[in-house]
Each structure stands twice: as C-alpha cells, then as structure tokens.
Amino acid sequence: MTCGWVPKLDLYVDGELFGSELAEVEAHLRACPTCAADALSRLQLKRMTQAAGHRFSPRPEFRHKIAQSIERRPRWTRRWAPAFAAVAALVLMLVPAAVWLQNLRNEQALDELADLHVSTLASGNPVDVVSSDRHTVKPWFQGKLPFTFNLPEMQTSPFKLIGGRLTYFQQSPGAQLLFEVGKHQISVFIFQNRGELSRLNSGSSLSKKLAFNTETWADGGLWYFVIGDASPSDVHALGELLRNADR
Fold this sequence. Notes:
Layout: H1 9-13, H2 19-31, H3 33-52, H4 60-72, H5 75-78, H6 81-122, E1 129-130, H7 134-140, E2 160-169, E3 172-181, E4 184-192, H8 195-198, E5 205-209, E6 212-219, E7 222-228, H9 232-245
Antiparallel strand pairs: 1-2, 2-3, 3-4, 4-7, 5-6, 6-7
Helix pairs in contact: 2-3, 3-6
C-alpha cells in the first residue's frame, strides 16, 4: 500500500518544507523505513541529474575574440584557423572542466555523509552505544578506531549526547556521534584527516546543504563534519563545543 507521505518526499528533498511541516516529515522518516529509503533514492537521483546537466562551452567573448583574430590573419592562413580555434577552445574547456570535476567529487563526498546521516535517522537502532555520558561513549570507540578524540561536557549546554556508532567513509573507519537539540538531531562525523579529506576543508565553513546545515574543519590530525536540520547557530555552537574540547 502506498504511504500517504510519499507526495511530500519531493518537497523534502528539494528543501521546500519548513517549520512544523518539516519536523513532521522528518519524524515520519525516522519511523518509516520505506519512506526513508525512498527519500534517500530521490536524493541520489537529484544529484545525478544535477551532475549530468552541467556542460562546458566557450564563452561568447572568447568566440568573438577568435573571429576577430581570424579576420586579421592573411587569407592563406584562414583555412587553418578553425582547427586552431578548436584546439584553443578545447584547452580552455579542459581547465574549468577539471575544476568542476574536482568540485563534483567534493560534493559527492559530502553527499555520501549526508546519506549516512539520513540513514542513521531512519534506522531503528541509530547508535551502537546508547549513552549521554561522554565517559561511556568515548571509551567504547577505543580499539575500534586508529585514533582518539575528545568529547565536551554537555551538562550546561542545550545539547544532549544520544550515543555513537562506528561508520565508514571512503573505506576508512570513523566515529559518528548523534546529538539532540530541541526536536532536532545532529550527526558529528570524525575521521583521520587524509589528503582526500583536506580538499573538503575550508577552515571552519558553515554551508547550506539540501535541507541540512553543515560545518566542517580539521584539527589535531582529525577531520570533523557536523550535519543536521537544526539552525545554523546550533550547528555552529555544537562545533564550537567540539573544538574547545580538543584544546
């Protein structure tokens, strides 16, 4: 039987739901594995469609400049001009194409983490170790990860630690911590900072990604990625707590 929430999934994927309506859909996704899988599939299809829609072509200014150059050349060279123009256009196209491909890889990497966050929220068992005590959660990862990390004291903050789980990203193990603020849940991913991840760093940058707010930074040989549907200020505040815990 078709779930009555299906018509709202496209609106959710496009980031067109707000307030109580957004909260209701997200609560349903956590309780309905079928809709959660459907939403994840729609997210992936949207990204593939956006990637396929990019095309590269010389700008009109470049075409005009080539045409003027051809007119100024001696007549005997003009028959070769189209070939030279084609080669020049190809060279100019390859540079932005390479940049775009790198940006696309970066976006796909962050999309993968967003998918992990959505899958966690949709799971009946979102965390492997359930505890709000940092002294319970942190030791649980010992022996499971090739690195250690610090967790902040949460008692005086609006955030509540729900627990953590072992996760994998680009074939490397990492920690996924789940926090709650108000009615919103935020995932914190922690991995060893490698060359591939360093390209995703932009200092401490806050960005809007689909229906989520995200923040990423590197510190002490580790790479952090915070993502959730909480407000940008809440995502940033949690990031500040984590950064101060490492100092």
